[in-house]
Amino acid sequence: MDGMFCNGRELCGACASKRAPCVQTDLCDEAADRCADCTSDLDCVDDGDPCTVETCDTDWLTCRTAPCSLSFDAPPDQAVFPIGEPVDLVGRGPRGLDLVLVLDESGSIAPADFVALKEFARALVEGLPFLSDGTAARVGVVMFSSGSRRVLSLNGNKQLVINTILSIQQRGGFTCIGCGIDDGADELIADGPPGATWVMIVLTDGQNNLPAGPDLHLAGALEAAAFHGITIFAIGVGGAVLDTEIERIASDVPGVQTAYYAFDFTFLQTVILNALFIGLAGPYGANNVYTVDLTLPDGADAVALVDPTGNFTVPQWAIMPGENRFTARIGTYFGPKTASLRLTGVYPCEATCGDLNGDGSVNLRDFAQFTSCFFGRSWHSPVCGCGDLNGDTRIDMADFAAMIAALENPAKTVPPDCPGP
Fold first, then answer.
1. What pTM does this model have?
2. Fewer C-beta within 10 Å: the chain N or C terminus?
């Protein structure tokens, strides 16, 4: 190891340099052992995806693409539509979970316990949601002992993942936890597209004891994982684990338990599995597909399915008078998310501006009707609705001024280009 930060981390074994820690190596700060890809959000290039957000992580001075959460894409918030017009609403939801299982296969695990470890991993995968095309959840598997090996790259075929896990043969050896974390991070970085949630589950029955300087090696692996925005759930099994090391490996996520302890390998299946599913609670319904819970403007509930590309469609809606508020709710891996959309319904007035009675001219009869609507504030009718000349869902002094202008305007403009005050 050359001790240099900017040319990448080295691993024991072949001692080959890993990829450079910085996207732009010319901005790497060797003296401070840190990257400087950005200093503010303005330095981060938008990927063009309306669902993701590019921000500058000021702790690491690197740009991150935040996973998709929940949003309404179209129509725009506070758009105005004629009452009764059917409107198609489209939103974006989370894209799924890329999960790498980083599992101990060291010699301290008895054969029967290794079978229990694999059964735990199988049950975990069994409970995760997979869509038929493999885009909801993908799982990869890394085994570690004296070194590490990638048994399976990220894959969305549930049965293939399960079959691979059950076929793993234990190799034995020491316990290089940092090796497994490095391999798991490499798999996510290489095969995990932006927009998905990146997670590792690290399970061990011992303490990190390889390579030479294992503490520094593990620290480097954890730093690399954190740098790339990977969340780690850590599980320690048995009395040989070091509690402080499990806590150190586990990511700090507010409100989410990421460090777990099991007395033995049978305890994994009975307690840890259920607790872990709570920590990994995702946006899925009973059929293992993405679902978005909706509240429509009339108070009715509805459910929308999220397709593999992250889109969901709200049932077509006929605009009602006034505010039409839509609320979407979805569970994510780290807490619920909500989004809202407000559309305004106005009565369609296709006649000349100010022609409230629709006789083709703007005159004092229209002004008299407008005055009645203005003082009565009762515009939820076709006649008074047409008195809302500026389309802001109110009949107020701005509309009064526009009505006067309409009486005086020989051009007789038509909505939505009515004269302003």
1. 0.64
2. C
